C-alpha cells in the first residue's frame, strides 16, 4: 500500500505544469490528492523547495525570452514574405511568368522530350494553372465545351419549335395522341434543362468581365428571357387536362403558351447578326463552303418559308378555336371532310397568295379571328415587298457602312479563295481575322491621327481610357504614365484576336511591333519547343527585338484564345519624339528582358549537359552557375558587338551613303554650272572686245 501511494504521488509530480500569469509571474500548480503523504517524503520535499524556486526563476526568464523571440521571428517571416511577394509581382509584370516551361507534345523525339522534361522539373517544379477564368461549382462557363454542345441542341429545339410545334398545335388531334404526348414531353424536358442551364451559366458584362455570381446571373436572366423560357416548358396541358371534360376548351388554349417558344427565334436571329466568333451560321457556312451572298439568300428564304408555314397552321387553328362552326372558312368552303395533307396544302395556298398579293377571293376571312389574322398577314406581305425588297438595301448602305464594307470584303475573300485554291482552314482564319478587324478597328491609322489631333486634351484622355473595353486600366504599362501619353498611344493601338496555339510572330521575322495582352496568355518560345516565358494578361512583349533593331530571336504562341493590342512602329516613333523619358524606360526594360531571356535559355541548355552523371552538390551548383554566367556574358557581348550590323542598320547605312552621293552630285552640278557661267562670261568679254575693234 505504501508503494502504491508513492507511485501515485510521483505521477502527480510529473504532471506538474507552469502557468504564465498576466503579471509575468510563474506559479506552480500541484494537483490535489486525497491520499496522505508518507513522512519519509516530507523531508525530501522541504529540502528541495529552495532549489525549485531557483529553477522557477530561470524557467521564467527562459520562457519570457522565448516568447519574445518567437514574436520577432514571426515578424521577420512576415516582412520577408511581403518583400518576396513585392519582388515576385514586379518580376512577373516585367519578365512574365512560368520560366522554362516545356511544350512536351511539340517534340518529335523521345530523347528531346526526356531532356526537356528533366530540365523543366529542375528549374520549375510548380505546376502551371491552365484555366485563367475559373467558375464556381455548378456554374457553367459561357465558352465551355458543354455550353457549346448544348447550343447545338438548343438550335435543333428552336427549329422544332418553328416547324413541328405549330403543326402539332393545329393538326395534332388527327394524329396518334400517344406519340404526340411523348414527343411533347421529351421536348418539354429539354426546354426545362435549357432553363436550368441558363440559370447557371456565367456571362460577360459590358466591360467583358466574366460574371460568376449566382445572384447576378439569375437577375440578368430574369431581365431577358426567363419568363418566356419558363412558359415554354411549363406543362399547362398536363395540369389543365386532368380537370375534366368541361375544361377541354381551356386545355386547348393551354397549348398556346408553347408558341411563345417562337419568340426565341428572334433571339437566335439577333445572335446571327452580332456575334462573329461563336455564331452557328458561320460554322454552317464554313461546313458547306457557302459564299456570303448565298448565306444571306439562304437565311431570307428560310425565314419566309418558316413564316408561311406558321401562318398556314394558324389559319387552320382559327377554325379549330371556333370548334369548326358553320361560319369558319373550312366549313363554309367544304374542306371539313378532306384529309390532313389536303387541308395543309390549302392553308399554304392561302398563306402564299395573301403574302404575295391580297388574295384571289376564293378563301376569305369571315369570323373576327380570321379577319384579324388576314389583316396581320397582309401587313406582313406589305412590309415584305415595300420595305424588305425596295428600301432595305438602300437603308443598310446609308446607315451601316461598316457592315456593307465587311460583306464586300468577305465576298472578295470567297472569290480569291476560289481562284487561289486555298484550304478551308486558311479561308476560315482569313474571314475571322477580317471580321474581328472590322468590328474593333473601323478607321485607318491616318484617320485616327487626324481625328485625335482635332480633339481637346482632356477629351482625348477620356476617350482613350474607354477604348477597347477600358483596356488601358488593366495594362500595367499605362498604370503610372502621364495622361498625355495615354491619350496619344491608346487610340492608335490596333486590336487583334489570336486563336489557341497560333503564332503571333515566329523566330526570324522582322520586328516592328510591340504587343499588349488584354486577355489570354502568350508563351515566348525558343527552338519551337522550349518555353522561355509566359506573358500574362496586362503585360506586353515583343519589345526586345524592336529596341535592339534586330529580327525576332524568339517565337510567340498563344496558349489560349487571346486578345492583343498592337503598338506599331508609327506609335513607337511618336513616343520616341514626344516622350523621351518613357522611351528610355522602355529601352531599359527591353535590355533587362533580353538578359533574362538569354539567361533562361542558357540555363536550360546547360542543365542537362552539366547534370549528366553528377550529384547535385553545392560545389557542382557553384560550377554550374559560373558556367552559366560566363556563357551569358559571351552571349551578351556577341549580341551587342558594335561591328555586327543588323539588317535595319545596314539599310540605314546604305541610305546615308546614298544621301552623301546625292549631295556630292549636287555639288558637282553646281561646280559645273559655275564653270559654264565663267566660260560664258569670258566668251562674252572676248566677243565684246572683238566687236569694239
Summarize the structure in words:
With 693 residues, the chain is α+β, with helices and mostly antiparallel strands. Among the domains are: 2-90, no CATH class; 140-275; 645-693. It is 64% helix and 7% strand. The protein is built from 27 helices and 13 strands. The chain has helices at residues 2-14, 39-47, 49-95, 110-123, 145-171, 177-199, 214-224, 226-233, 236-241, 248-254, 263-274, 280-288, 292-321, 329-332, 340-356, 368-389, 392-399, 401-420, 424-440, 445-453, 457-466, 483-489, 543-548, 569-578, 580-611, 618-639, 647-692, and strands spanning 17-20, 26-29, 101-102, 203-204, 210-211, 494-498, 503-505, 514-519, 522-526, 530-535, 540-541, 555-558, 562-567. The chain has a five-stranded antiparallel sheet with strand order 3-10-9-12-7. The chain has a four-stranded antiparallel sheet with strand order 6-13-8-11. A hairpin with a 5-residue loop joins strand 4 (203-204) and strand 5 (210-211). Helix 4 (110-123) packs across helix 25 and helix 21 (457-466) packs across helix 22. It is flat. Keywords: Coiled coil, Ion channel, Ion transport, Membrane, Transmembrane, Transmembrane helix, Transport. It is found in: Membrane. Residues 29-58 are annotated as: Disordered.
Span from first to last CA? 168 Å
Structural shape: flat
- Supply Rg: 42 Å
Low-confidence stretches: 1-45, 98-131, 243-248, 250-278
**Total count of helical runs of at least 4 residues:** 27
Class by alpha and beta content: alpha+beta
Proportion in β-strands: 5-15%
Question: Please, what is the average pLDDT?
Answer: 70
Main sheet specs: 5 strands, antiparallel
Could you give the order of strands across the largest sheet?
Answer: 3-10-9-12-7
- Overall helicity: 55-70%
Secondary structure tally: strands: 13
Protein name: Cyclic nucleotide-binding domain-containing protein
Subcellular location: Membrane
GO molecular function, one term: voltage-gated potassium channel activity
Coiled coil: 647-678
Amino acid at each position: 500500500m505504501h508503494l502504491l501511494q508513492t507511485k501515485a504521488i510521483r505521477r502527480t509530480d510529473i504532471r506538474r505544469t507552469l502557468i504564465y500569469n498576466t503579471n509575468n509571474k510563474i506559479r506552480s500548480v500541484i494537483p490535489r490528492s486525497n491520499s496522505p503523504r508518507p513522512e519519509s517524503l516530507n523531508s525530501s520535499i522541504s529540502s528541495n523547495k529552495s532549489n525549485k524556486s531557483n529553477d522557477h526563476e530561470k524557467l521564467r526568464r527562459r520562457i519570457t525570452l522565448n516568447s519574445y523571440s518567437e514574436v520577432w521571428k514571426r515578424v521577420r517571416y512576415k516582412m520577408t514574405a511581403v518583400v518576396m511577394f513585392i519582388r515576385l509581382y514586379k518580376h512577373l509584370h516585367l519578365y512574365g511568368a512560368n520560366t522554362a516551361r516545356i511544350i512536351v507534345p511539340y517534340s518529335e523525339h523521345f530523347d528531346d522530350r526526356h531532356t526537356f522534361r528533366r530540365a523543366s522539373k529542375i528549374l520549375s517544379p510548380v505546376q502551371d494553372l491552365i484555366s485563367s477564368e475559373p467558375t464556381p461549382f455548378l456554374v457553367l462557363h459561357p465558352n465551355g465545351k458543354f455550353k457549346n454542345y448544348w447550343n447545338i441542341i438548343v438550335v435543333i429545339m428552336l427549329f422544332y419549335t418553328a416547324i413541328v410545334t405549330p403543326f402539332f398545335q393545329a393538326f395534332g388531334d388527327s394524329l396518334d395522341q400517344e406519340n404526340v404526348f411523348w414527343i411533347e414531353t421529351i421536348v418539354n424536358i429539354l426546354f426545362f434543362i435549357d432553363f436550368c442551364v441558363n440559370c447557371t451559366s456565367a456571362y460577360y458584362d459590358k466591360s467583358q468581365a466574366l460574371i460568376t455570381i449566382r445572384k447576378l446571373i439569375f437577375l440578368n436572366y430574369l431581365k431577358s428571357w426567363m419568363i418566356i423560357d419558363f412558359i415554354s416548358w411549363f406543362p399547362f396541358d398536363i395540369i389543365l387536362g386532368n380537370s375534366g371534360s368541361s375544361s377541354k376548351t381551356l386545355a386547348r388554349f393551354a397549348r398556346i403558351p408553347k408558341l411563345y417558344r417562337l419568340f426565341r427565334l428572334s433571339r437566335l436571329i439577333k445572335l446571327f447578326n452580332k456575334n462573329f466568333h461563336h455564331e452557328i451560321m458561320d460554322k454552317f457556312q464554313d461546313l458547306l463552303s457557302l459564299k456570303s451572298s448565298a448565306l444571306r439568300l439562304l437565311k431570307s428564304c428560310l425565314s419566309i418559308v418558316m413564316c408561311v408555314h406558321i401562318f398556314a397552321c394558324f389559319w387552320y387553328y382559327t377554325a379549330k378555336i371556333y370548334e369548326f362552326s358553320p361560319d369558319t372558312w373550312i366549313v363554309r368552303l367544304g374542306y371539313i371532310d378532306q384529309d390532313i395533307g389536303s387541308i395543309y396544302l390549302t392553308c399554304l395556298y392561302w398563306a402564299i397568295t395573301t403574302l404575295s398579293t391580297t388574295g384571289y377571293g376564293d378563301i376569305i376571312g369571315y369570323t373576327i379571328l380570321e379577319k384579324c389574322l388576314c389583316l396581320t398577314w397582309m401587313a406582313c406581305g406589305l412590309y415584305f415587298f415595300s420595305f424588305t425588297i425596295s428600301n432595305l438595301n438602300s437603308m443598310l448602305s446609308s446607315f451601316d457602312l461598316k457592315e456593307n464594307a465587311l460583306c464586300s470584303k468577305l465576298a472578295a475573300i470567297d472569290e480569291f479563295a476560289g481562284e487561289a485554291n486555298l484550304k478551308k482552314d486558311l479561308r476560315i482564319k482569313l474571314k475571322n481575322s477580317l471580321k474581328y478587324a472590322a468590328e474593333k478597328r473601323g478607321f485607318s491609322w491616318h484617320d485616327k491621327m487626324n481625328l485625335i489631333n482635332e480633339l481637346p486634351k482632356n477629351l482625348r484622355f477620356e476617350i482613350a481610357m474607354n477604348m477597347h473595353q477600358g483596356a488601358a486600366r488593366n495594362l500595367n504599362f499605362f498604370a503610372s504614365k502621364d495622361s498625355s501619353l495615354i491619350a496619344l498611344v491608346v487610340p492608335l493601338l490596333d486590336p487583334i484576336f489570336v486563336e489557341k496555339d497560333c503564332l503571333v510572330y515566329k523566330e526570324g521575322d522582322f520586328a516592328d511591333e510591340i504587343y499588349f495582352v488584354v486577355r489570354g496568355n502568350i508563351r515566348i518560345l525558343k527552338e519551337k519547343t522550349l518555353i522561355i516565358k509566359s506573358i500574362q494578361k496586362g503585360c506586353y512583349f515583343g519589345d526586345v527585338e524592336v529596341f535592339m533593331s534586330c529580327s525576332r530571336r524568339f517565337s510567340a504562341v498563344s496558349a489560349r484564345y487571346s486578345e492583343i493590342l498592337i503598338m506599331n512602329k508609327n506609335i513607337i516613333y511618336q513616343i520616341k519624339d514626344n516622350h523621351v523619358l518613357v522611351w528610355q524606360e522602355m529601352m531599359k526594360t527591353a535590355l533587362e528582358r533580353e538578359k533574362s531571356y538569354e539567361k533562361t535559355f542558357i540555363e536550360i541548355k546547360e542543365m542537362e549537359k552539366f547534370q549528366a552523371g553528377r550529384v547535385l552538390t553545392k560545389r557542382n551548383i557553384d560550377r554550374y552557375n559560373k558556367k552559366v554566367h560566363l556563357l551569358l556574358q559571351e552571349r551578351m557581348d556577341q549580341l551587342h558587338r558594335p561591328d555586327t550590323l543588323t539588317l535595319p542598320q545596314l539599310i540605314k547605312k546604305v541610305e546615308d551613303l546614298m544621301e552623301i552621293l546625292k549631295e556630292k552630285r549636287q555639288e558637282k552640278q553646281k561646280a559645273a554650272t559655275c564653270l559654264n557661267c565663267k566660260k560664258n562670261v569670258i566668251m562674252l568679254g572676248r566677243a565684246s572686245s572683238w566687236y569694239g575693234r
